[in-house]
Amino acid sequence: MSRPTVEVARCVVSLASLFILSAWRLVDAQVTPTPEIVRRLDAAVRSGEFRQITSVAVLQHGRFLYEGYFGGATMATLHNTRSTTKTVTGALVGLAIEGGLLEGVEAQVMPFFADKAPLMHPDPRKGRITIEDLLTMSSLLECDDQNAFSAGNEERMYLVEDWPKFFLDLPIRGFPSWVQPPSHAPHGRSFSYCTAGVVALGAMLERAAKTPVPAFAASRLFGPLKIDDAQWQFTPTGTAMTGGGLQLTTRDLATLGRLYLDGGRIGQMQVLARSWVQASLAPHVSVDDRTDYGYLWWIKPFTSNGATYRSVYMSGAGGNRVHLFPDLDAVVVITTTNYRVQDAHALTDRLLTEYILPLLSA
User: What is d(CA 189, CA 139) in angstroms, rounded to the nearest whole number?
Assistant: First the structure.
């Protein structure tokens, strides 16, 4: 498929762009972006200003305002959006809880891994690690992908065979006097970005469901959403890599975003429990002064032209994003291959604030 022309990008909606969205609620009000806003967005991405962007999709009220593919990507391209996979894993955990396969977010993790004993660094606090601790990146295990010296840094995990055991073997995290402990932190938790914990979460899900994660996802999540082509990566022991690497099309990513924006519904079908969606998108741990974290969702405001908009979003290396802007009833998908580009997330932030939010608020 050839790249869409600027004229096509100006269209509010077409039958083709609605084929996966036909079950979504549509509204009578027309949302018509001005041609100049669309032209500037399309030209900026094509110019290389934001480096290796592969697709941008902007939806509002269930309709495409803009959809563009770049660098040889097409509507059928599967994008490796890295850690956006973690958010999909969170949805699968919610489905397992709703189906009675897991007792709830307070359920302890260790009973699912009795075969991994004995563990290194034994400590009774390990037995109290819960599903919610892993969903919120706030377990007490010393695991920090943003610290090259961390025992739990994901690059160390990739060197061993058994990734869940790698996580469970980690020591308890220390809190020196200059680091805020959970007892003094907002929400009573301390954030530490940990891919290994989400890998363990996926392994626990697989054991609870007694079926491989890809099959569970195809049956309970992707099937109802008509997502037919999802490619998982796998760990050395053959379980799905639930911490990153899942490949999906831009429109399928938009479908997942819209599912959460619509409270877990698609058309008349309640795919995810509304209570799970609400809990997932609520803040459970503070990341920094401007950023919170839900159940594997980032929560942060973005300011454009003097107005501030709350966003909840999936995020992956290279500045890959699926943003929800609830106040604008909008979903934004940005895929990139900026994996080794310095400040790639800052580039995505600027694309949002300088071009996409003005389009949504036009």
Answer: 8
Question: Among the residues of the chain, which ranges form H helices?
Answer: 6-10, 35-46, 84-98, 131-135, 154-157, 163-168, 195-209, 213-217, 250-261, 274-280, 344-351, 357-360
pLDDT digits 0-9 by tens, 303-341 = 999 999 999 999 999 999 999 999 999 999 999 999 999
- How much is the pLDDT for 33? 62
SS3 270: strand
Average pLDDT score over the chain: 92
The Cα–Cα gap between 262 and 72 comes to 32
CB atoms within 10 A of CB 35: 12
The CA-atom distances, in angstroms, between 235 and each of 68, 119, 159, 254, 326 are 33, 20, 11, 27, 35
CA distance linking residue 118 with residue 104, whole number of Å = 26
- Pairing mode of beta strands 53-60, 307-316: unpaired
User: Residue 14: its pLDDT value, please?
Assistant: 34
Is the pLDDT at 46 greater than 90? The verdict is yes
Write down the pLDDT at residue 35. 83
All residues at 6 or more sequence positions from 3 whose CB lies less than 8 Å from its CB, including other chains: 68, 69, 70
